[in-house]
């Protein structure tokens, strides 16, 4: 009999916290990321379909939470202030004497390209769904979760050579599907 979900998550928490702390190098942020990931699972437990281990599933959620924190920290600029500085002095430090900002804002990119990228990933998802379930799973474990081959083999109970063959087949079939459904050309047949 398996333990209730909340007890399983509590057992995973120390390992998740170590992983998040290693990535973020900040215990407070790591704590927040772990809590967010655990809450996401507890709020919608039906999303965990059991196609992977609970640890892999929660780590996948936490991975994106960590990426969000890292991206947010790059967008914010820490300004050191002395005790005697006013808020106006802090704001003035962001600008040059001519009124321009000290740092140029990042480019926003191209909205059309972003929409096209979303469409690409929708087609990619359809192509993944056409793969055999185990082949799609191993591809996602390797490319999306970025698990090492030995971790994948252990999780799925397969040999390394079997894993590499399945990854090769997944890549070939995905390429054919994308060539046909995204790039609009017929796959090369030998």
Please provide a written account of the structure.
The protein is 66% helix and 0% strand. The protein has 2 domains: 1-75, Rna Polymerase Sigma Factor, Chain: A; 111-190, Winged helix-like DNA-binding domain superfamily/Winged helix DNA-binding domain (Arc Repressor Mutant, subunit A). It contains 8 helices and no strands. The termini are far apart. The chain has helices at residues 5-24, 27-43, 54-75, 87-92, 111-130, 133-143, 149-156, 160-181. α1 packs parallel to α3, α5 packs across α8 and α6 crosses α8. With 190 residues, it is mainly α.
Look at the helices and sheets and give the structural class.
mainly alpha
C-alpha termini separation = 52 Å
How many helices? The count is 8
CATH architecture group name of the largest domain: Orthogonal Bundle
CATH topology of the largest domain: Arc Repressor Mutant, subunit A
Largest sheet, strands/sense/barrel: none
Chart the SSEs and their pairings.
Elements: H1 5-24, H2 27-43, H3 54-75, H4 87-92, H5 111-130, H6 133-143, H7 149-156, H8 160-181
